User: Fold this.
Amino acid sequence: MTQFYGKTKICYGDDALETLEEIPAKQAFIVTDAFMVKTGFVNRVKTHLDRMRIPCIVFDEVEPDPSLETVIRGAKLFLQHQADLIIAIGGGSPIDAAKAISFFAGKALEGKSRPTLVAIPTTSGTGAEVTSISVVTDKVNEVKIPLNDELLIPDMAILDARFTRTLPPHVTAATGMDVLTHAIEAYTARQANAFTSIYARYAIRYVFKYLKRAYLNGDDMEAREHMLLGSCMAGMAFNNSGLGITHSIAHSLGGIFHVPHGLANAVLLPHVIRFNSFDVGIRYHEIAQMLKLPSATVEEGTRSLVDAVCGLNESMGIPNNVGALKIDENVFRSSLDTIARNVLDDICTEGNPRRPSRDDIKDLLIKAW
Assistant:
């Protein structure tokens, strides 16, 4: 049986934040980072809560790639205050942390009503506002741990492109390529279906049309809004279809070498397309045709897609090889077995159209260097 699941109420546009005033709540718990507080984004949210006389606690300790320790601290603080509304404000890290806090704290509530979870993304990248996945980092063992449970899906996503306007160009680029990776992997995943393909195709179109514009001009609000919508659509797609080894390898590179997730995906994506091309070349060909790239044959379409991804990377200062990521080559090569083991254990690998072996992963990584 094939199925498509969508739980999150999606609100977007300039007045989307006003939806907060429609949520019945007695106590709010905001999960974010210090930068979101400094920029005033948290105060903009608190204004709407104040109008409804809803008190709130702000947990602003989330770091990039949130750790298990941070999630535990947040869950303890949440349980102390017994909030019935959790609001995540930020990029993938605060949203992932809020989802994990909600999940673990909810388990401790022992049958009591779970809090309403609202996600307000400030980057156009992860799609975390609509997915059942939360990635936390085990910093002791240097590995990223993807959690996957329907209880992690936010109840509401508020998409306001004004929150993304101040993103610096390099973050816009990396998070935007994360959107493209989500969409392409969702389109070619083993569980892809008619519904996920619709969302994935729109997200791919939006990235190729609007990402470079958003990168060159952060005040281009049409581009910002479409990238935010594309990110959400890609999230809806891969939440149902699964992902692939671009993400599995990126998780390991992030855990071991601290490479930002979107950047790792951008660099790896062309290499994984080549790796998977024998199994799903026809799907890459379809993408190339959709983008009006040269695609007289399946092989030409796949090559054209690889060239288009590489070209988009290069136009935004993103390299197309792992060796350019300031990773020591000797350490990298000595870590190949560990990376390959992590990839085979990663939940995202289950969705990859080609089932890789440990040697396949090592060979792919060597070619990507």
Remarks:
- The chain has two domains: 9-164, 169-368.
- Strands lie at 9-12, 28-31, 56-59, 85-90, 116-121, 133-138, 143-148, 156-159.
- The chain has a mean pLDDT of 93.
- The longest strand covers residues 85-90.
